[in-house]
Amino acid sequence: MKRHSVRIAVIATAAILAAGVLSSCSSAAPTGGSTAASTGSKTIRVTLANHVWTDAIKAKLPEFEKETGLKVELSQYGEDQLSAQYNVKLNAGTNEIDVMMYRPLQEGKLFAKDGYLANLSTDVKSDPAWGWSDFQSGPVGSTTYKDKVVGVPIITEQEVLYYRKDLLAKAGLKVPKTMAELEQAAKAIKAQNPGVAGFVARTAKNAAVTQYSSFLYSFGGDFIGKSGKSAIASDAAKKAYAYYGGLIRNYGPANVSTDMSWPEAMAIFTQGNAGLYTEADSLYKNATDPAKSKVADTVGFAPMPAGPGGSKAYNVPSWALGINAASDNQSNAWKFVKWATSKKLTLAVQQAGVPSARTSVWANKAGTATYPADLAAAIAASTKNGIGHDRPLVIKVPESRDIVGDPLVVAITGGDSNAAADQASTAFQKLLDAEK
């Protein structure tokens, strides 16, 4: 099978491994990667990323082992090291990984196309009580490849509107529900509060793509059309580019830079220098923690304002669990995945601060008790019509983000974003054609 993955230099990978980035956390003795340990083995080798979700799962592992009689050999890495492991081991056809935590939007298409992920279509429907139908459609769409389920979403993220209650009250305005109202509010806040931006958001062409995506969808567009062709030069996309760029150019911070990712944009908001801000819900504590935010006591949350296409925020799985197609222990691997994504454990993990892809958890008061009430309501609204991707679903994700993000920078700086969209669409189509 031809491998399409970007190769990580062997020397670099060896250095990573030699540095001891691997940490094993298991009550089982190391197997040393022997075939005997994976063929019908009671030891399940699970590879996870450093994450709050992983910490919560690790604390529950003794329960799983007691219930099933199985042992979990857990390997845990930082994101870069995890990618290095996968690029080398999966490309070599390893059977030394059974369960793998992966990023559906970053490497999901690559892994599925290269045959690294086992087909879970039968497994997810085998137990109605476990409830595959309970998972939200957006995340499920991103863990499905050519009508085959290849992963179970475990952590989700949506874009919401952060706003200053005091500044909206001062302007005599209600929380914006439409894009027109958002612009009106941004204009009023900037006019009434010298030195305060009406609106702030990410501006760096790569980093801004994910947050721009909700504007794109709400204007009725997408990155790739139903025909599989580039759609970033569509009328809807051009209007979304112009609108997003115009908000920042006309009502954003003075002398705004075009290299802001979320830390820079969040800092402007939390230091009291902006009234409206669209960003991922997962970052909300930066705005509500008094130790981090000067405006913590006046921050509110709302769903993405509606555009011509409605209110359509992204609702994406930032991480999912998959099973290595080359594993000899897939049956037991599924038992782990099923347990780790069960309704009971998902509720416990969400209570620890990790947003879930299960609808039932958001409908459960116990599942939303640790969230601000208006944020929980905004998330619930976003999951109903949410789009399951916040960037182009391609193999060369970083390259695609640079391409589709370029018209954003042009719009922010007052250039011809329509012409930039046409040019970017040509480049994006070449990328799509090369991946066929």
UniProtKB/TrEMBL annotation:
The record's annotation in SUPFAM superfamilies points to:
Periplasmic binding protein-like II
Q: Give the InterPro entries listed for this entry.
A: Bact_solute-bd_prot1, SBP
Could you tell me the keywords of this UniProt record?
A: Signal
Q: Name one Pfam family in it.
A: SBP_bac_1
Kindly give the CDD domains that the UniProt entry links to this protein: PBP2_TMBP_like
Signal sequence extent: 1-28
Q: Which PROSITE patterns match?
A: PROKAR_LIPOPROTEIN
Q: What is this protein called?
A: Sugar ABC transporter substrate-binding protein
**Organism of origin:** Lacisediminihabitans profunda
Q: What is the lineage of its organism?
A: Bacteria, Bacillati, Actinomycetota, Actinomycetes, Micrococcales
